[in-house]
Specification:
By secondary structure, this protein is mainly alpha-helical. It has one domain. It is built from 6 helices and 2 strands, in the order αααβαααβ. A two-stranded antiparallel ribbon has the order 1-2. The longest helix has 27 residues. It is globular, with a radius of gyration of 16 Å. The relative contact order is 0.18.
Length: about 140
């Protein structure tokens, strides 16, 4: 069965996440270095960083029509299965509950399973996509 449109698979989604990290972390790291003289990325390990980064992952796609920077560069975007607009609740469920909290509670097992789901399922939807009613579209 062929889907009506292309779904973004595991590799392109992983590259988009890596691009996102680089585009977001490197400029902040440079600013921290300019102010402190310390070249370290230890600041990405704390609670404050996680809150800021997940805030970015929840808010940006709602106002930028399914994109975060990495997804925009890779020409993929988050969409609702039912065709409605993404909401803050959708993105909170997807990113915070479906990826972060589930990953913490299951000691990363849900992250591995979600990745395998995106890799092997025909509809390319992971646990976080199923919970939030979303998918990632390749444009």
């Amino acid at each position: 069965m062929r889907l009506a449109f292309e779904r973004a698979g595991f590799v392109i989604r992983a590259i988009a996440s890596l691009v996102d990290w680089i585009v977001v972390i490197v400029p902040i790291g440079i600013m921290i270095y300019l102010f402190t003289g310390e070249a370290s990325f230890n600041w990405t390990q704390g609670l404050v960083w996680n809150i800021v980064y997940y805030f970015y992952l929840v808010i940006t796609p709602v106002f930028w029509k399914g994109y975060v920077i990495g997804k925009k560069i890779m020409n993929i975007k988050i969409e609702k299965v039912n065709g409605t607009k993404l909401t803050l609740l959708d993105m909170f469920i997807r990113e915070v509950i479906g990826i972060f909290l589930l990953g913490v509670v299951t000691f990363g097992l849900s992250t591995v399973i979600g990745g395998l789901m995106v890799l092997f399922r025909q509809d390319k939807r992971g646990i976080h996509d199923l919970l939030s009613g979303t998918f990632v579209k390749a444009e």
